[in-house]
Amino acid sequence: MNKKGIVFDLDGTLWDASAQVVPAWNIALNRHSEIDKQITIDEMRSFMGKTIDVIAQIMLPEIDRKKAVKVLKECCNEEQTYLRKHGGILYYKLEDTLKLLVQQYSLYIVSNCQDGYVQAFLDYHKLWIYFSDIEMSGRTGKSKG
């Protein structure tokens, strides 16, 4: 008999990494003298769940789209490096909940993030054992929706 599955999003469902990734993004943004922008935690939270292309349109509308996406990919690379060392904030009793759920369900993560972000979450918090598979728009080129 096949197990039923549960598909989770990551940001806002399993953890909140907004405050942790803001400094990483600002480091990457500071490398570009033509960009006079520092991101805030509230802005970061508003971007969660959106693809890089959509964030580029919102965050850097005055910059050529291709260049804006390139800059945001640098932000994401900086973010992943940081998250692999420091993690984010797991929601209350997340691991206890996953331990219970995985006994009856196959668990999955699907996210509109860049490739490597879900892996950073799973690596730092050592949660790979609970998930059967993961997918993200940064790997497929498609939105989760």
Automatic annotation (TrEMBL):
<dbReference type="InterPro" id="IPR023214">
    <property type="entry name" value="HAD_sf"/>
</dbReference>
<dbReference type="GO" id="GO:0006281">
    <property type="term" value="P:DNA repair"/>
</dbReference>
<dbReference type="Pfam" id="PF13419">
    <property type="entry name" value="HAD_2"/>
</dbReference>
<dbReference type="InterPro" id="IPR023198">
    <property type="entry name" value="PGP-like_dom2"/>
</dbReference>
<dbReference type="GO" id="GO:0008967">
    <property type="term" value="F:phosphoglycolate phosphatase activity"/>
</dbReference>
<protein>
    <submittedName>
        <fullName>Phosphoglycolate phosphatase</fullName>
    </submittedName>
</protein>
<dbReference type="InterPro" id="IPR041492">
    <property type="entry name" value="HAD_2"/>
</dbReference>
<dbReference type="InterPro" id="IPR050155">
    <property type="entry name" value="HAD-like_hydrolase_sf"/>
</dbReference>
<dbReference type="InterPro" id="IPR036412">
    <property type="entry name" value="HAD-like_sf"/>
</dbReference>
